[in-house]
Amino acid sequence: MYALRITDVKKVYKSGDTELAVLDGLNMAIKKGTIAAVVGRSGSGKTTLLNLIGGLDRPTSGTIIVRDTHFERAAEDELSDIRNRYIGFVFQFHNLLSEFTVLENIMMPNLLQQYKVDYAYSRAVELLSLMEILPKKDMKPNRLSGGESQRVAIARALINDPEIILADEPTGDLDITTAEKIKGLLFNIVRKFKHTLLIVTHNPSVVSDTDVTYRLHAGSLNTLLGNFN
Questions:
Q1: How many domains does the chain have?
Q2: Does the structure show a pLDDT above 50 at 197?
Q3: Contact assessment for residue 2 and residue 30, using Cβ atoms and an 8 Å cutoff
């Protein structure tokens, strides 16, 4: 079973009479439970690809299928529902809400989906424990280090038990030691709960334990079979 299928996707941006094809005939099929990575130079289209898969943008042409839904022709409310219920987002800049505690930040997506408070609380505590940051649960984000903030952001992305997790340079702003720790925690949780993870990165150490790695170049993907070179 595939979590994600992309066929001949093109994304063209227009500025006046000029057209820029960021993605050009891109194909990808990722099985459920796979940890996959996409590597490529800055500006190669990695973030554009994640935005398309996450339903935040639409392709110029081609098909994107998530949960048997064709994203390229789905209504906006359908895309929004799938994003909220089945897709978790992790970004390089964690975007935590400063006025809420760590625990409240993580619980928020659950509560927005109208889960009971007791369930959201127990789920958040479980994830904080798995991310090894439970003692920080009552702190505000401004008292956290960069690595701690990213752990909280990952827990928040996982709170709704998404089928697919999209991670955009999640360790890009961290030192090598912290990045390796965060990667290990994320990969362990993903494998534990059998999520599908697609991570875009320029960091060779991040892709070392993936099931499959692609290089994005000239608008298309090449499989690297887990190698960064």
A1: 1
A2: yes
A3: yes
